[in-house]
């Protein structure tokens, strides 16, 4: 009888032990499933955010979008986005009036030490501003291949609001943001290259025509087209070489660019020819006066290169839109004819 009781107790003990192990295993598996679900949900969220941000590739709104997303998904009170410019983190967007309390950014800019992830929770206000309260903060650097691209600082007015879970999310998100920012940089570089003339950095002919034709199709009629040609440029190239000729052309383009208005558009038309679109033209006289001023500036310019000194002059032809002009080609043709007249008048003159 005692032997049967012992066997029963042993079986009962083994069963209870198995039951405990089974329950512990099930709890562990359940925790792993929950953790996996959280990771999947986080990954899904990050992928959706990345897809949304990529819609703003090449747009000035990209950093504003990133900042809005930080506020939206984290529920923080404040968010600030910094990007690296000239080896310093520069504030690009923030919904804060002042960011003087971002000491970690200031220290990085002064010492150039590696910027680390930082979590601050303080019962004391860390904003140093009597008009607001900040008690919780995360600084998340954005790195790509160990090269810093920027940083995000998110803050809340509630103590202990931001936690390690927020850091995990921001770390994962910062990797995708780094790729988005790098893609945006490459996109803008490619876009600029496709629009600009490599030597002079003026707009190229294709870009000029596409923009001005769009303006005309949108009803723009109050503008003038100016054609400019460097006098005796071939002789300059043949006498002093193409390097010197390139320097002459760059000098001329810089002078012209510095003397036109922000909304005017200047492009390299071809060779040593430059074309300008001037909008909101009051009258022919105002265009002439501006071009005459540019002509005089260039006339008084001396280009020095390897012991060579050379005085430059330009000829200019102007055309203002007429009511019967049907396309851009007609306006350019008139400006070109006036440029031809300027050449025949002895060069270094403005003709309209």
From TrEMBL:
<dbReference type="InterPro" id="IPR050469">
    <property type="entry name" value="Diguanylate_Cyclase"/>
</dbReference>
<dbReference type="InterPro" id="IPR043128">
    <property type="entry name" value="Rev_trsase/Diguanyl_cyclase"/>
</dbReference>
<feature type="transmembrane region" description="Helical">
    <location>
        <begin position="62"/>
        <end position="84"/>
    </location>
</feature>
<dbReference type="Pfam" id="PF00990">
    <property type="entry name" value="GGDEF"/>
</dbReference>
<keyword id="KW-0812">Transmembrane</keyword>
<dbReference type="InterPro" id="IPR029016">
    <property type="entry name" value="GAF-like_dom_sf"/>
</dbReference>
<protein>
    <submittedName>
        <fullName>GGDEF domain-containing protein</fullName>
    </submittedName>
</protein>
<feature type="domain" description="GGDEF">
    <location>
        <begin position="221"/>
        <end position="352"/>
    </location>
</feature>
<keyword id="KW-1133">Transmembrane helix</keyword>
<dbReference type="Pfam" id="PF01590">
    <property type="entry name" value="GAF"/>
</dbReference>
<keyword id="KW-0175">Coiled coil</keyword>
<feature type="coiled-coil region">
    <location>
        <begin position="1"/>
        <end position="28"/>
    </location>
</feature>
<dbReference type="InterPro" id="IPR003018">
    <property type="entry name" value="GAF"/>
</dbReference>
<dbReference type="InterPro" id="IPR000160">
    <property type="entry name" value="GGDEF_dom"/>
</dbReference>
<dbReference type="GO" id="GO:0052621">
    <property type="term" value="F:diguanylate cyclase activity"/>
</dbReference>
<dbReference type="InterPro" id="IPR029787">
    <property type="entry name" value="Nucleotide_cyclase"/>
</dbReference>
<keyword id="KW-0472">Membrane</keyword>
């Amino acid at each position: 009888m005692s032997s049967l009781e012992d066997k029963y107790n042993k079986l009962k003990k083994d069963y209870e032990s198995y039951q405990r192990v089974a329950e512990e295993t099930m709890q562990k598996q359940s925790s792993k499933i929950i953790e996996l679900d959280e990771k999947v949900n986080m990954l899904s969220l990050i992928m959706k955010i990345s897809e949304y941000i990529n819609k703003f590739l090449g747009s000035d709104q990209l950093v504003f979008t990133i900042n809005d997303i930080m506020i939206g998904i984290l529920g923080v009170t404040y968010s600030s986005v910094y990007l690296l410019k000239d080896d310093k983190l520069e504030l690009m967007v923030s919904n804060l009036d002042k960011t003087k309390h971002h000491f970690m950014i200031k220290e990085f800019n002064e010492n150039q030490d590696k910027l680390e992830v930082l979590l601050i929770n303080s019962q004391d206000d860390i904003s140093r501003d009597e008009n607001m309260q900040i008690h919780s903060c995360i600084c998340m650097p954005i790195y790509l291949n160990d090269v810093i691209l920027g940083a995000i600082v998110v803050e809340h007015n509630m103590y202990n609001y931001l936690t390690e879970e927020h850091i995990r999310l921001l770390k994962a998100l910062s990797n995708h943001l780094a790729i988005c920012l790098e893609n945006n940089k490459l996109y803008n570089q490619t876009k600029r290259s496709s629009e600009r003339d490599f030597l002079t950095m003026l707009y190229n002919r294709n870009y000029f025509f596409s923009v001005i034709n769009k303006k005309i199709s949108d009803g723009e009629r109050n503008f003038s087209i100016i054609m400019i040609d460097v006098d005796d440029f071939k002789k300059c190239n043949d006498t002093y070489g193409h390097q010197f000729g390139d320097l002459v052309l760059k000098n001329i383009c810089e002078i012209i660019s510095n003397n036109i208005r922000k909304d005017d558009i200047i492009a390299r038309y071809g060779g040593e020819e430059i074309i300008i679109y001037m909008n909101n033209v009051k009258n022919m006289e105002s265009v002439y006066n501006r071009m005459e001023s540019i002509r005089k500036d260039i006339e008084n310019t001396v280009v020095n290169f390897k012991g060579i000194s050379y005085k430059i002059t330009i000829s200019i032809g102007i055309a203002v839109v007429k009511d019967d002009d049907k396309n851009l080609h007609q306006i350019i043709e008139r400006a070109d004819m006036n440029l031809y007249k300027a050449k025949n008048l002895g060069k270094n003159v403005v003709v309209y």
